[in-house]
Automatic annotation (TrEMBL):
The chain crosses the membrane at residues 21-39, 51-72, 92-112, 124-144, 188-207, 240-265, 271-294, 306-328, 340-366, 401-427, 439-462, 468-488. This is Polysaccharide biosynthesis protein. InterPro entries: Poly_Biosynth_Transport, Polysacc_synth. Its main location: membrane. It holds the Pfam family Polysacc_synt. GO terms for cellular component: plasma membrane. It is a multi-pass membrane protein. It is found in: Cell membrane. It comes from the Bacteria.
Length: 506
C-alpha cells in the first residue's frame, strides 16, 4: 500500500493542532473551575491518581509501539493476512493487560492513603475515587483499543484526533456543569469513565468503515510472535523510565510535601506539558512516515531529514523557552495568584526540563521508528533509577528544586548521551561530533533569543492581562527575529522553506 507521507503528516499536524488546542484550553478551564469550586487539594488529588494509574499502565509494556512497528512492512507490501493476525494478537494482549491492571489496581487500593501527606479533602472517600479512576483506565484497554493500531500504522492519526476533540469537548462541558452546579468530585470522575468508553467505541466504528478488509483473525508464525515479544520486552524498560520521570515526581511530592505543593507543581507542569504536547505532535505526525522512509529510502536521505527535523525543533524550542521565561510568572499571577506560585529559579529549571525533554524526543522518534529497542532497553531504566534516587534523597531538604534537578540530571548524564549513541552508531553509522556541534550552536542561539526577549519584556511595566498580551507579542516578534538573524544563511533554513513551499503547492 502506497502511503503519502507528506500529505498524511500535514493532515496529522493540522488536525493534531486542533486537538491539542482543545486538550489544553478545555482541561485548563476545568482545572481552574476545580481550583475555585473545590480547592487546590482536589487538584493535587487528581494529579496523584493520574500518576498512580500511569504506574499501573506499565502493564502495557510497550505492546502498542511494538505492534505498530510490526505493521509497517506488511502494510507497505499489502500483506492483509499478516495484518489481520497482528490485530488478533494485539487484541489478546490488550485484554490480558486490562485484567492485569485491574487486579494490580485493586491490590494497591488499601495503600493509597499512605501516598498522601496531611491535607486530604474532607468528606470524601479516596478509595472510591481511586477505583473510579481505575475503571476508566481498564476500559481504555478492553473496549476495542487494539483497533487504533491500524490508524497509527497507516499514519491516520487525524481520525483519532477528531474523535478525541469531540469527546473531550463534550466531557469537559459536562464536567464544568457538574463542578458549578453540584461541586461533586464523584460525578466529575464518573464522566471521565463514560467519555473513555465513548472514545474507544467511536474510533472502532471508524476503523471498521475505513479498513473493512482487516479483521482480528489468523495466526502468526512462532518466529514472528517471538520477535514481537522481544520488542515488547525491550520496550518495557522504556515504559518504566518514562513512568518514573513523569509520575514518580508527583507521587514523591504528594508523599513528602502534601497535596497543595503537588497542585502548585502540577500547575507549572501543566503549562509546560501543554506546550510539549504541541511539539510532540510533530513527532507523532511524522512517526509512521519516518518508519516507512527508513524501510524504503536511503540512509543519506534519512540523515538529511533528521538534520532538518533537528533544526525545526530547535527553532521551536528557542521560541518556547523564550516565552516560558518571560511569561510563566505573569500568567501564574493572573491564573492562581501569588500564594500558589514558585520563584523564578523554578521557572528556569522548567525551561531546562522542557528543552532537554524535546531534544530527547528528536532522537527517540528515529530510534523508535528504526526499532532500536533492544539496544536501548537499559537506558530508560537507569535514567529512572537515577531520577527516583535523587528525588527521595533530596526532596526533604530542597523540596521542588530536588524534583526538577533530579530530572534534569538524569537527562544530561543518562538519556541524551545514550540516545545519541543509539541513533548515530546503530542507525546512521556516522560520527555524531559534527551534529553535536550544530546542536550546540542551536542551543546557544535559543539561549540568546531567550535572554534578549526577557530584556525586552521587562520594559513592559503594565500588569494584568493587558501586560501579559503585550509581553506575548514581544516574545513572538523578538525571539523569532533573533533566531532568523542567527540562521539567515543556514542551509537547513533553506531546506525548510522548500518543504513549506511543496506542502502549499499540494
Amino acid at each position: 500500500m502506497q502511503i503519502n507521507k507528506t500529505k498524511n503528516a500535514a493532515r496529522n499536524l493540522a488536525f493534531g493542532s486542533i486537538q491539542k488546542v482543545v486538550n489544553i484550553i478545555m482541561p485548563f478551564i476545568t482545572r481552574t473551575a476545580m481550583l475555585y469550586f473545590l480547592g487546590a487539594e482536589y487538584l493535587g488529588l487528581n494529579s496523584l491518581f493520574t500518576s498512580v494509574l500511569q504506574v499501573l499502565n506499565l502493564a502495557e509494556l510497550g505492546v502498542g509501539s511494538a505492534m505498530i512497528f510490526s505493521m509497517y512492512k506488511p502494510i507497505a507490501e499489502d500483506d492483509n493476512e499478516t495484518i489481520c493476525a497482528l490485530m488478533r494478537l494485539y487484541k489478546i494482549y490488550y485484554r490480558i493487560i486490562g485484567i492485569v491492571i485491574l487486579i494490580a489496581g485493586v491490590c494497591i487500593t488499601p495503600f493509597i492513603s499512605h501516598l498522601i501527606k496531611q491535607d486530604v479533602p474532607q468528606n470524601i472517600n479516596i478509595y472510591v475515587l481511586y477505583l473510579l479512576n481505575l475503571g476508566s483506565t481498564v476500559l481504555s484497554y478492553w473496549l476495542f483499543a487494539y483497533k487504533n493500531c491500524l490508524l497509527y500504522a497507516h499514519q491516520r492519526n487525524d481520525i483519532i484526533d477528531k474523535t478525541s476533540t469531540i469527546v473531550i469537548c463534550t466531557q469537559q462541558l459536562v464536567q464544568w456543569i457538574v463542578l458549578f452546579a453540584f461541586r461533586n468530585y464523584y460525578f466529575y470522575l464518573l464522566i471521565v469513565l463514560i467519555a473513555q468508553a465513548a472514545k474507544n467505541i467511536i474510533n472502532a466504528i471508524f476503523v471498521s468503515k475505513m479498513y473493512p478488509q482487516y479483521e482480528a483473525k489468523g495466526d502468526l508464525p512462532k518466529e514472528k510472535i517471538k520477535d514481537i515479544n522481544q520488542r515488547v520486552r525491550d520496550l518495557f524498560t522504556a515504559k518504566v523510565g518514562g513512568t518514573v520521570v513523569n509520575s514518580a515526581d508527583s507521587i514523591v511530592i504528594s508523599a513528602f510535601m502534601g497535596l497543595t505543593a503537588l497542585a502548585m507543581y502540577n500547575n507549572y507542569y501543566y503549562i509546560m506539558n501543554s506546550v510539549i504536547m504541541f511539539v510532540y505532535m510533530i513527532f507523532t505526525a511524522i512517526g509512521a512516515g519516518v518508519g516507512h522512509s527508513l524501510v524504503t529510502a536511503s540512509l543519506d536521505k534519512n540523515y538529511k531529514d533528521f538534520n532538518t527535523l533537528t533544526f525545526i525543533v530547535s527553532w521551536i524550542c528557542g521560541f518556547c523557552i523564550s516565552c516560558f521565561y518571560s511569561l510563566y510568572q505573569p500568567f501564574m499571577k493572573i491564573w492562581v495568584g501569588e500564594k500558589l506560585m514558585f520563584n523564578n529559579i523554578v521557572v528556569m529549571m522548567f525551561c531546562a526540563y522542557f528543552y532537554l525533554y524535546i531534544v530527547c524526543g528528536i532522537f527517540s522518534t528515529y530510534k523508535d521508528s528504526a526499532g532500536i529497542w533492544h539496544e536501548d532497553r537499559y537506558r530508560p531504566l537507569i535514567g529512572a533509577v537515577v531520577n527516583l534516587a535523587l528525588n527521595v534523597m533530596f526532596v526533604k531538604t530542597y523540596g521542588v528544586y530536588a524534583i526538577l534537578m533530579s530530572t534534569i540530571i538524569s537527562y544530561l548524564i543518562i538519556n541524551i548521551p545514550w540516545l545519541i549513541y543509539n541513533v548515530f552508531h546503530l542507525l546512521f553509522k556516522v560520527n555524531p561530533l559534527k551534529y553535536l556541534g550544530r546542536l550546540f550552536v542551536y542551543t546557544c542561539v535559543s539561549l540568546v533569543a531567550c535572554y534578549i526577549t526577557s530584556l525586552c519584556t521587562r520594559l513592559i511595566l503594565i500588569e494584568g492581562l493587558v501586560g501579559l498580551i503585550l509581553k506575548l507579542v514581544v516574545c513572538i516578534v523578538i525571539s523569532n527575529l533573533v533566531m532568523l538573524i542567527c540562521y539567515f544563511k543556514n542551509n537547513e533554513l533553506t531546506n525548510c522553506i522548500g518543504i513549506v513551499k511543496r506542502i502549499i503547492k499540494r
